[in-house]
Amino acid sequence: MKKPGLTGKVLTGLVLGAVVGLLINLFASGSFEVINTYLFVPLGQIFLGLIKMLVVPLVLFSIILGTAGLGDPAKLGRIGIKTVTYFLVTTTIAITIGLSLAAVIQPGLAGDFDLSSAEFETTEAPSVGDTLLNMIPTNPIASLVEGNMLQIIVFAVFVGLALTALGEKTKGLVAFIEQGNDVMMYLVGIVMKFAPYGTFGLIATAVGSQGFSAMKAMGSYMLVIVAALLIHAVFTYGGTIKFLAGKSPVWFFKKFAPAMSVGFSTSSSTATLPISMEVAQDELNVPKSVSSFVQPLGATINMDGTAIMQGVATMFIAQAYGIELSTMDLMTVVLTAVLASIGTAGVPGVGLIMLAMVLSSVGLPAAGIGLVIGIDRLLDMTRTAVNISGDAACAVYIAETEKIRELRLKNMNA
Fold it and tell me: What residues form the membrane-spanning segments (predicted)?
């Protein structure tokens, strides 16, 4: 991320895409399908395809090296516990913010919604226990082919531990994996040159297909979610950087802006992973051993943005249906959402599956999701930008606390 002007170019592509998509939808809606098919979609999908091409090998190489670089299994366990605890705590904070803001602003009372047309087909999500059991790959090759991130992470951690235990015997294999990781990071740099055009195409498609009328009808709901996301990013992640890592929040968000822009346009934490890891390592000075473990894990299980959506959507649907939620119901929503963030890790369409679980836990109709699903694509973009920021904030926090711990141990031994 040392290329000058990259952040500006990506942001320019993002803004231009939004403006062009909205203008075409407003003034030339009949032409949108043609322009979208032959210009916006190819630009966006080529960029997404290039990034996704790198995700699996990069995660495999980086986590193996990260685990081997940590060396001490006790250190790996300590970092793992701190990371998972951080993600669970911030997820709890996130859904609490979403519920509170929606309870005050009451977006579900802002308009007349057609409840009879609201439909949503629920999909059963695996239990937390099943998810934990399914983390262990019975066939690592199949996990790599299918892109099952949790299984890839577990397999890579075991390989990294084995490399550490075998030491000199596996020096050649470690060198090979390091070279493979270097190749992947070099390719990330090349792909990022296409980022401004890719973000332009992705944003133009998202905004143009939704249109101004859809955004206007759900304006209050959208504003509450965006406000909650901003509050969470500024106070929760900013507070992490300021008080836990001892760094400047302004420095953090400024340096991490390129990854946030790509995350916003792709709507996928996993797809953005190569860029977010490169930014964290090069711009935020997070050691590879920490970044390579924390960020891939965060891309799989950290769902703060999704938790905010669930909190706001739950209150919105309850208000639209005229159902009042008790304090116990709200506590149930928080608990269910936090557990669901673990139980649905790695499941496609995880956000809506989690929302269906949360709604059913307090007796709200899952069909209410049909009210919000229309503009979920646009909000998914903002959620992803927040999610990857949380992964990076956690990586910075872990890195700084490990530095302090190592310094104290040196002083004690001196």
Answer: 12-32, 44-71, 83-105, 149-166, 186-208, 220-244, 330-347, 353-375
